[in-house]
Design brief:
This protein is of the alpha/beta class. The chain is built from 15 helices and 12 strands. Strands 1, 2, 3, 4, 5, 6, 7, 8, 9, 10, 11 and 12 form a 12-stranded mixed sheet that branches. Strand 1 and strand 2 (6-12) form a beta hairpin. Helix 4 packs across helix 7. The longest helix has 111 residues, at 422-532. The model has no long low-confidence stretch (mean pLDDT 88).
């Protein structure tokens, strides 16, 4: 509950019912809400979130259990609630009411999408999230530099993959300008992207990218917007969770101007179940959180970790958490007993009780508290009864969630936009190169077919010439045979004519001879007769 420039958290349990309050101008000094399961941490977080909203301070909550969405609805009246209202003496100021809530969800199931671009993340953070080797990180820096120089916009994971493949294919062209790019490093980066992609990285990296200032809003009544990120599924995917947190903290740190000391924070973050944030988290994430916690106070941002034990928080971060609420701790093991002792020693001692003993005997809704006073001095630890929330303690139904999402002014993030970026650019180049290659292939094929056609023509011409020569040879031989036959026939005819002539001559000779013989005989006969008869 917010009143008189202070956050009213409850009353002291010392019998005096002294109001326990946080000074609003000290709330950007960060804080811790700790305690065992079921001791009231979430209720305390909701009370604080409501108070900040009433004070006009926007709030961001990572809802890892799915139980804080009830901030959007007025609380339900009950006998126990009425008794608590009377106990705290707030009957005149308390009212059941809901708060302006905006739901977000990286997986786009229970809230507006939260997106960032690969360029926003940058090579350094991305290399640390992917746990790349120094050589791989160097190659990733080269890839980002080439993308910048070539005007290739890196928006989502397919853009990054496309540029990685492009650089790998043209590594010889880039070697003299940017340095050597080993295929093994490219392969290592591509392998490292697989877990991030399978955890939902394809949903987180894209457009429209979230404008961090959309979390720093107030409603028409001046109440700070309560931004609730559904993280039930997100915390089960550490690579994506780390990516989101690193991006968010880098965005806040880089984009928010220095503000110095302010009357109230610009924005307050609550990280519920913070042990999930630090347990097994990448070292780079822890380092970034340490850096942001130390430096972001001057930008007007308060960060509050909600966890089971202070020992869940690294000492370097814990030392920056000045506003503390410690609910009950249980100590059944030596390690737990040590944690209780450490938690007790972190408070400024109260001479009225032994802090270590009280921590283990606190009831539900009771806590040890210590806040900075108006001058920034840590207050003495005191036992406190925490007031009840004014909003609903149970989750809201899905119908109300959907209705609120339709009226919070953030619907522009709902539909993803796949603008022209590196993937499309390189795909276009690849298509052009493919078309060019296809044209070259077609041209080569045409040349080949042309050469084959010419060769075939030559072959056919040679065959035709050979056939012609063969036909001419056959014609010549036929002619020679015909001439030979004609010559032989002529010779035969001539021979026959000669023989016939010879025969005729022989016959004439014979006839002449016969005639001669006959004539000679007669002559001889006449001569003889003449002789005889002289």
């Amino acid at each position: 509950m917010y009143r008189d420039g202070k956050i009213y958290l409850g009353i002291s349990d010392d019998g005096n019912k002294t109001p326990v309050e946080m000074y609003l101008n000290m709330c950007n000094r960060h804080g811790l809400i700790a305690g065992a399961s079921g001791t009231g941490k979430t209720i305390t977080m909701k009370v604080m979130a409501e108070s900040f909203s009433d004070a006009g301070v926007p709030v961001f909550l990572c809802d890892v259990k799915g139980d804080v969405s009830g901030l959007a609805m007025p609380g339900a009246q009950s006998e126990s609630m009425e008794k608590r209202i009377d106990k705290f003496g707030i009957r005149d100021t308390f009212s059941y009411k809901g708060y302006p809530v905006c739901f977000w969800d990286i997986y786009q199931e229970k809230g507006h999408p939260v997106r960032a671009t690969i360029s926003d993340m940058g090579p350094e953070l991305l290399a640390r999230i992917l746990d790349l080797t120094p050589a791989q990180e160097g190659v990733l820096n080269i890839v980002f530099r080439i993308a910048d120089d070539k005007g290739l916009v890196l928006v989502d994971l397919k853009d990054l993959r496309a540029v990685l493949n492009y650089v790998s294919e043209h590594k010889s062209e880039f070697m003299l300008t940017y340095g050597s790019v080993a295929p093994q490093s490219i392969g290592g980066i591509l392998r490292a992207l697989l877990p991030l992609e399978s955890q939902g990285g394809d949903l987180f990296f894209g457009e429209p990218a979230l404008d961090i200032f959309d979390w720093i809003r107030t409603d028409a009544d001046g109440k700070g917007m309560v931004n609730i990120l559904d993280s039930v599924k997100l915390v089960q995917n550490p690579s994506l969770y780390a990516s989101f947190l690193l991006w968010m903290m880098a965005e806040l740190f880089e984009r928010l101007p220095e503000a110095g000391d302010m009357d109230k924070p610009k924005l307050v973050f609550f990280f519920d179940e913070a042990h999930m944030l630090f347990s097994g988290a990448p070292k780079v994430l822890v380092q970034k959180i340490e850096q942001v916690v130390k430096l972001i106070r001057s930008k007007g941002v308060g960060i509050y970790f909600v966890t089971q034990s202070p020992s869940d928080i690294p000492d370097s971060v814990l030392a920056q958490l000045s506003n503390r609420v410690q609910h009950a701790l249980r100590a059944y093991t030596p390690a737990e007993q040590k944690a209780v002792k450490v938690a007790a020693q972190s408070f400024r001692a109260n001479s009225s009780f032994k802090t270590e003993d009280v921590i283990m005997n606190l009831g539900v809704g009771h806590a040890l508290t210590s806040f900075l006073d108006e001058s920034g001095v840590p207050g003495i630890v005191q036992q406190t009864s925490v007031i009840c929330p004014q909003s609903l303690m149970a989750p809201v139904d899905e119908a109300l969630r959907t209705r609120l999402m339709g009226s919070d002014g953030m619907s522009r993030y709902d539909a993803s936009v796949d603008n022209w970026s590196a993937y499309e650019e390189l795909s276009g180049q690849a298509e052009e190169e493919q078309k060019k290659a296809e044209l070259e292939a077609e041209r080569a094929q045409l040349e080949k077919e042309k050469a084959a056609f010419a060769k075939q023509k030559e072959k056919e011409a040679a065959a035709a010439q050979k056939q012609k020569e063969k036909e001419e040879e056959l014609a010549r031989k036929k002619k020679e045979r015909e001439e030979e036959a004609a010559r032989r026939k002529k010779e035969k005819e001539e021979e026959e004519a000669r023989k016939k002539k010879e025969k005729a001559a022989e016959r004439r000779k014979a006839q002449i001879e016969r005639t001669l013989i006959s004539t000679g005989g007669q002559i001889l006969k006449r001569g003889l007769l003449k002789t005889l008869f002289k």
